[in-house]
Specification:
It contains 4 helices and 15 strands. It is about 30% helix and about 25% strand. The strands form 4 sheets. The protein has a 5-stranded antiparallel sheet with strand order 8-7-9-14-15. The protein starts with 6 loop residues before the first helix and ends with a strand. It has a single domain, classed as Creatinase/methionine aminopeptidase superfamily (Creatine Amidinohydrolase). Helix 1 runs antiparallel to helix 2 and helix 3 runs antiparallel to helix 4. Bound molecules: 2-amino-4-trifluoromethylsulfanyl-butyric acid and cobalt (II) ion (CO). The site of cobalt (II) ion has 5 residues, from loops.
Length: about 250
């Protein structure tokens, strides 16, 4: 069931989302060669708590960290570790969410560590642009898979691939609510267009884009998703409200 949010509830979600934005900003500033994902995780957790919020992922399905990391060929859900030290030329995904006053906010960015290859730079640019293309379609004139189609066609036209194993999601008083928000148009469904978008729907749109094959596998830690072929992957995410006046990015 899709929970439509009132204007007041959307404002509460904006408050949660703003803590996510501020925290991701701090992490971005701290990303540099020599820093560990453990250090970044602690920073994020402290910043959430300082703002009266709680990290959303910690303890969710027993996830042990506050941030989900993704270095290079990792797609999503990398667990923070003192042994995972960033180095020049890496790209690192930072996925963070909080709960504040009963509502969740969720956002992700992928950032370069120092100088990165032209390919990595292009992957980051295309993935972020695909998210914005998807958000542009989040209007009451459209259906859900208009978002999916915009993301998929943009990414595939640039020669990259869309991960199928993970999708975006509704968000509100739960981190994951209906509907699922695929970054590709599902091929076999009878609901080939997806649900109609309505004012008050709040969704986390989160394309994961690979340089090579779209396929992933999960490492033996039970969490870290990596590309099967070892190619680079990037991930960007925003929490977006559908309103009468068009899409509103709460994690802006
Ligand atoms: N942002 C991701 C998502 O929306 C991360 C959550 S997975 C978790 O699904 F288990 F770590 F919380
Ligand atoms: Co999410």
């Amino acid at each position: 069931m899709i929970h439509l949010k009132s204007k007041e509830e959307i404002e509460k979600m904006r408050s949660a989302a703003q803590i996510v934005v501020e925290t991701l900003g701090k992490l971005k500033e701290s990303v540099q060669p020599g820093v560990s994902t453990w250090d970044l995780d602690k920073m994020a957790e402290e910043n959430a708590i300082k703002n009266g919020a709680k990290p959303a992922f910690k303890g969710y399905s027993d996830y042990p960290g506050s941030v989900c990391f993704a270095v290079n060929n990792e797609v999503v859900h990398g667990i923070p570790s003192k042994k995972k030290v960033l180095k020049e030329g890496d790209i690192v995904g930072l996925d963070f969410g909080v709960i504040l006053d009963g509502f969740f906010g969720d956002s992700a960015v992928t950032v370069p560590v120092g100088e990165v290859s032209a390919l990595a730079e292009n992957l980051l640019k295309v993935t972020e642009a695909s998210l914005l293309k998807g958000i542009d379609e989040a209007t009451t004139k459209n259906r859900l898979f208009d978002i999916s189609r915009a993301i998929q066609s943009y990414v595939e036209n640039k020669g990259f691939s869309i991960v199928r194993s993970f999708v975006g999601h509704g968000i509100g008083t739960k981190l994951h609510e209906d509907p699922q928000v695929p970054n590709f148009v599902p091929e076999n469904g009878s609901h080939a267009k997806g649900v109609k978008l309505k004012p008050g729907m709040v969704i986390a749109i989160e394309p994961m884009v690979n340089v090579g094959s779209p396929d992933i596998k999960i490492l033996s830690d039970g969490w870290t998703a990596v590309t099967v072929d070892g190619t680079l992957s990037a991930h960007f995410e925003h929490t977006v409200a559908v309103t009468e006046d068009g899409p509103v990015i709460l994690t802006q």
